[in-house]
């Protein structure tokens, strides 16, 4: 497994992380209300859901350092989530088992559920470390199984993070498992390890 950058802590999300997960989900452009509804379901449903945190005094939330400003609602969720934090969550990712589809000739497989890194925490290797940790968590649950992810090719930072975490390009796709992309996307694969 790739080591986390200095000062970064990666841990499983817990039920009391609802506000922290919601703050990160809201960075994807959904409303705060939607994020607050989705967070507890996500924590309960995903077999792997990890949070990456920086020490509170090292975290640079979105809006700082010239990054695009967040809405006041997202700030309110962030303050509620971080009021008692000694480490500020800056990223999340997880994995789930995607059922197979005989019609598409797709077997059941582990899939990355997404990768969200707060813009104020990017370019620190956090995404790479988080993806590697998700891969390691999948190996603990299901040794030897590959982990797949679909990434839009235009998202160069995400493609680079996946490659740095050990993922390999498996195929170019314009849609996958019912998802349709605006442009070209990559199906990426992190090979499972056998002991």
Automatic annotation (TrEMBL):
Q: Which SUPFAM superfamilies match?
A: Acyl-CoA N-acyltransferases (Nat) (SSF55729)
Task: List the molecular function annotations (GO) for this entry.
Answer: acyltransferase activity, transferring groups other than amino-acyl groups
Q: Which InterPro entries match?
A: Acyl_CoA_acyltransferase, GNAT_dom
Show where the N-acetyltransferase domain sits: 8-193
Query: Which keywords does this Swiss-Prot/TrEMBL entry list?
Result: Acyltransferase, Transferase
Q: Which top-level group of life is the source organism from?
A: Bacteria
What name does the UniProt record give this protein?
Acyl-coa n-acyltransferase
Q: To which species is this protein native?
A: Actinomyces glycerinitolerans
């Amino acid at each position: 497994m790739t080591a986390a950058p200095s000062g970064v802590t990666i841990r499983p999300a817990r039920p009391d992380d609802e506000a922290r997960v919601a703050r990160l989900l809201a960075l994807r452009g959904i409303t705060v209300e939607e994020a607050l509804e989705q967070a507890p379901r996500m924590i309960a449903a995903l077999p792997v859901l990890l949070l990456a945190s920086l020490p509170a005094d090292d975290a640079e939330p979105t809006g700082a350092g010239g990054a695009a400003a967040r809405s006041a609602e997202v700030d309110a969720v962030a303050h509620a989530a971080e009021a008692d934090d000694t480490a500020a969550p800056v990223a999340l990712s997880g994995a789930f088992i995607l059922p197979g589809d005989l019609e598409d000739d797709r077997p059941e497989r582990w899939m990355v559920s997404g990768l969200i890194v707060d813009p104020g925490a990017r370019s620190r290797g956090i995404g790479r470390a988080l993806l590697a940790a998700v891969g390691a968590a999948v190996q603990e649950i299901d040794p030897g199984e590959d982990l797949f992810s679909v990434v839009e090719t235009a998202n160069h930072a995400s493609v680079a993070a996946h490659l740095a975490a050990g993922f390999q390009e498996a195929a170019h796709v314009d849609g996958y498992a019912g998802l349709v992309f605006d442009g070209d996307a990559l199906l990426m694969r992190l090979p499972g390890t056998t002991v």
